[in-house]
Amino acid sequence: MTGRRSRNKGATGEREFCKLLSEELGIDVRRKLGQARDSGDDAQVGKFRFEVKRREKLAVMDWCRQVEQAAGDGDVPIVAFRQNGEEWRVVLKLEDFLPLLRGEL
C-alpha cells in the first residue's frame, strides 16, 4: 500500500473508531489533527488516551510504546486496532485494566 493510501486508511480508521465511541458514550469524540506530526495519541476520552490503528500487519507492542510515550501522568494508554473483516480490539496494561474490572464486580 502506498504512503498516501496508508495514511488515508489510517485516518478513516481513526474516524470510524471515534464515531463508535461517540455513539456508545453519547459524547463527541474526534480524532486529534496533527497528532502524526506531534507524535501524540489519536483520540482522548477523559484520562483514556488512544492510539488507533487500521492495519493488516500488527505491531501491537510498538503501538503500545507509542501511546505510552504520549500519555501523561494519570492517563490510561490504550491501543485500538482493527484488521479487514475483523472487529475492533483494544489493548491496555493489566495495571490499567484491573481497576476497570474491579468496578464491574
Q: End-to-end distance, in Å?
A: 45 Å
Count of extended strands: 4
Reported for the largest beta sheet, the result is:
4 strands, mixed
Reported CATH architecture: 3-Layer(aba) Sandwich
Which word captures the global form? Answer: globular
**Quaternary organization:** single chain
* Percent of residues in helices: 40-55%
Number of helices: 4
- Rg on CA atoms, Å: 14 Å
Quote the CATH topology: Trna Endonuclease, Chain: A, domain 1
Strand order of the largest sheet: 1-2-3-4
InterPro entries: D14-like
Pfam family, one: PDDEXK_15
Jot down its keywords.
105 residues, alpha+beta, Trna Endonuclease, Chain: A, domain 1, 4 helices, 45% helix, D14-like
Describe the structure.
By secondary structure, the protein is of the alpha+beta class. It has a single domain, classed as Trna Endonuclease, Chain: A, domain 1, CATH 3.40.1350. The protein has helices spanning 3-25, 35-38, 60-70, 94-102; strands spanning 43-45, 48-54, 76-82, 89-91. It has a four-stranded mixed sheet. Strand 2 (48-54), helix 3 and strand 3 form a beta-alpha-beta unit. It is globular. It starts with a helix and ends with a helix.
